[in-house]
Design goal:
By secondary structure, the chain is mainly beta. It has one domain: Porin (Beta Barrel). The protein has one helix spanning 2-20; strands at 48-60, 64-77, 82-96, 103-120, 123-134, 139-153, 158-170, 180-188. It has an eight-stranded antiparallel barrel with strand order 1-2-3-4-5-6-7-8. The longest helix is centred in the first third of the chain and has 19 residues, at 2-20. It starts with a helix and ends with a strand.
Length: 189
Amino acid sequence: MKKIIGLFLLILCCSAVVAQSEDVPLPKNLQVKAPKDQQGQQKAERKMKFVAGGTIGFGVNRSELNLKLAPHFGICPGIDFLCIGVGGTYYLNYYKDPFSGLKQFTHIYGFGGFVEGYIWDRLVLHAEYEWLRFPALDETSHGVLLGPGYKQNVSDMVSVYGHILCPVYETLNGVYGVVEMRVGVNVTF
């Protein structure tokens, strides 16, 4: 009986080793894609890809109107699931005090850097550092935002994306809300 159990365990271990050595296919976004030219022949793919794009956003409530412009530029260094980039930010804030009627325009500008990794197919994880200057208050703010996102390709070069980012660090309280929701466009070349 001991020999039969030993033989059974040996067969089980060998089958586990053989099963581990099989090739497991990668997700579609991690597989190597070989593009084809007009004649159908495979052509060599560039190692690095560049991404340019940005977001346009606005916010409205009873006494405020915010307009945001945030262009960015990134590099995908030879692997499709990672992108590193820099960008700028500009806010135009219009505020009207509901009690006194005082109207005020505020300009806020800054820059930052981001790292974005594709987790699975179209889902991304986005981390961003942002420095903002508030000239009206004569103050600056540093913030780190982190959160998931979704990317949808419109064509081979153009994609739209959305992020839901949470501030994990900020030096001035109240710069960011509980979450930052962004929608934007990327062009890959």
